[in-house]
Amino acid sequence: MMESQQEPKVTIPPLIPLEYSNRVMLKTILECGDDQIGLFGKTVVVGGWVKSSKEVKREPVAAALKPPTAAEAFPPSPGPKELSCVEVVQSRIPFFKKIIRVFGVSSDSYPGVREKFEPVPKPPPPPPPPSKFFLQINDGSSISSLMVVIDSAIVPVSAGHVLPTGACILAQGVLEKSSSHGKQTIELKVEKILHIGTVEPDTYPLSRKRLPLDSLRDYPHIRPRTTTVASITRIRDTLDFAAHTFFHNHGFLHVQVPIITTIDSEGFSEKFQVTTSKKWGLGSGSDADVRHETVKAEQHIEARDKSKLGTGVKPEVKEDFFGRQSYLSVSGRLHLESYACALGNVYSFGPRFRAEKTGSIKQVAEMWVVEVEIAFSQLEDSMKCAEDCFKFLCKWILDHCPQDMKFVTKRIDKTIVHRLEYMMSISYERISYREAVDILRKVTDKTFETKLRWGVPLTAEHLSYLADDHYKRPVIIYDYPKAVKPFYVRLNDDGKTVAAFDMVVPKMGTVITGSQSEERLDMLSARMKEFDLSRDQYEWYQDLRKHGTVKHSGFRLGFDLMVLLMTGLTDVRDVVPFPRTHGKANN
């Protein structure tokens, strides 16, 4: 006896409306794969912005095109018809009208006749034939867009006013099998329009197709509606979650460090000074009455100059909001140390600021970083943690952003997925600064712009050669000369180098920098003296060495640079939502 064949069971994916907006995300409709067939017939509410639109008019069937009947083709000849006296008189009215005009008599003298002579008003034009509107809408949850079909015979829509690109729509309808022969297999047949947000097509920046990224930078408030920037934003969000996940999984506590600080954490960067003083030129008249805190960019590359950082406090500074010179933070690691020396392993995630007037495509004034501090650890521990974190982030993006990475591979960098997979699976090269210099000195087939000698920082050109050309993999360079690293980095036994490292990634450059902090009070004091730093200003930092000092190390991961790496782009301004650069901070 043959077993009866059973039809494959159709899985119906859940279409749960969002809790706070009572609509279904398009991602749940468009990215459920073969299970889309189970959605046919479901009534949903969706919303989004129009990516493209088209109107198709349905021509009415003309009655003249119908085949005539025999009676219509050959009508019988009409017989004679008797006319009444009234009909005879009415038929002669045009003749009487001409006689009146000949004699120059105004028709106003005969209102009855005027009324008879006035033309009969034309009937109103027939309503336009019904149309179908085909809209591709996207709500930012997916690479794909949903086809929305509006039949004006069912849902009234002003004829000739197709919802143009950029308009917003919220509609209720039924999901059906797509009637088109495109890539999509599902569409929404609208039953009710709940909201329409109009747009001005003449001024809408995205009316033109495929604006280049450098043009989109002029519209940071509008560019998230493009497919590319929306994809970058979703990758950025996933990377954000991945970073927190890694550190939570390894027992780290998240600590928020201040954005406004009174110390110079590095001594090598130009800083933004925070002040409420009118001395900095807030204008005249009504502008002079401004009471909001303002930020003034002040050049502080000469951070070691006593005339700038000296122990004295200028009179005008005493009257300022904080009573002393304050800056936007360049690094939060010093503050993070105080919590590491009490809670163990901690990390921070936030913006850091540099007032460098640089044209670098990998630097803007405000950049987000992940900073880590590990108690009871040394340089080797931080290097291992940094490498593990980097590999974890690469894997997380590939596992959780398949559609976006597919788009990035197609549109931006065809090799990006392969590179990330490669960097996940290999071990990273570790070399000392001295070894790096020796390798670069032996290069004969390339001339570097900056002359290389021991004791100077390695330039981006040097680092690129090591990672891209020599090793062809990420490289961790450690034990730098003490003159090129901050004062708080632990001095090595040779007295010339410090326990610091940089992780250099092919096609990107330095993504992670780290170090072991100086836990010895005498050594720290000596280093501060070398940098001409105020003892009073760093008294709290020295206290950590006086009261229960411990070896500790950490690192700083450039979050924006990681997004740049994951997307295959080259300019950090394209992955920062609202980039701030020298001379440009419009919104």
UniProtKB/TrEMBL annotation:
Annotated EC: 6.1.1.22
Its source organism is Gossypium gossypioides (Mexican cotton)
Its lineage reads:
Eukaryota, Viridiplantae, Streptophyta, Embryophyta, Tracheophyta
Q: Name one GO biological process term.
A: asparaginyl-tRNA aminoacylation
| One GO CC term on file | mitochondrion
**Any idea where the Aminoacyl-transfer RNA synthetases class-II family profile domain is?**
234-577
Gene3D superfamilies on file: Bira Bifunctional Protein, Domain 2
Question: Which InterPro entries does this entry report, sorted A to Z?
Answer: Aa-tRNA-synt_II, aa-tRNA-synth_II, aa-tRNA-synth_II/BPL/LPL, Asn-tRNA-ligase
Q: Give the transmembrane ranges.
A: none
The family assignment reads: Belongs to the class-II aminoacyl-tRNA synthetase family.
Q: What protein name is recorded for this chain?
A: asparagine--tRNA ligase
